[in-house]
Amino acid sequence: MLVVLVAALGVAFVFVPWILAGVGSGGGFDDEPDLRDAVRESFVAYWRSGDRDVTPGLDRVVDYWFRFHLVKGAISALMLGVLIALGIIVWKAFVRADALGAGKRAALVSAGVVVSLGAVFSLAALMANVQGLVAPLSSLMPMLMSGGKADPALTSTLGQVRGQLAASPGAGGHSPALDLLIDDFARYHAAMAVTAATVLAVFIALSVALWRRFARTDRSGRRARRVLASFGALTVLLSLALIVVTVANTYTAGHSAPALQAFFNGSW
């Protein structure tokens, strides 16, 4: 049942957000190229308005992207929970596999590794969607820079954005629209910093618990000790990665203007 549920959630993760995000007053988009075109067109109109408040066209796209991340984040959370439950079952079966042959034990290990990696992927997806949920406008910005046909209006707009970002912040060269982009970019990275720090705290606590249980487990329980040591090492490695993510995003949130400049210059 859990395997079928994981498969169903995997399919839902790919297709359902595009459908459910379109439910609402603003409607949806036919596909990703259609969304990308809407992002580019509405961003050009917003930049030309010169106002800090987003235009109705860009607001519609941002609202859609907010709903998209909300649905995708919910699916990611469900998949993470199911994979954790499935992983516990598989690894417990491996620990108790005294009567099984080497082939079946190897199959359990393989299944456990796949499920564990899936859980890590689901966690990363959940974190990314929380970030996009907090700052959907910044989450849309990569669509300005990738794919699609050359657009003179967009090229001109991006040139103006780069020109203002290159100017000194104290020189009064930033438009209200650019100030909003800088603030949202800071919020985008602050969201990831907080999310990563929260997950880091959980992993540190989990790592301590795993290694304590490893130390208390009798040496005769070799498979149990292997599982505990493996997950203990994994949580340590993931904690180190999360430290890097937390520090990098905290720094970027505090230096959002140069970071946004690097993004628009294609070096981010």
UniProtKB/TrEMBL annotation:
Query: Key word Membrane present in the record?
Result: yes
Q: Which domain of life is it from?
A: Bacteria
Q: Identify the keywords attached in UniProt to this record, alphabetized.
A: Membrane, Transmembrane, Transmembrane helix
Membrane-spanning residues: 74-94, 106-128, 188-211, 227-248
Name this polypeptide is given: Tat (Twin-arginine translocation) pathway signal sequence
Organism (species):
Actinomadura decatromicini
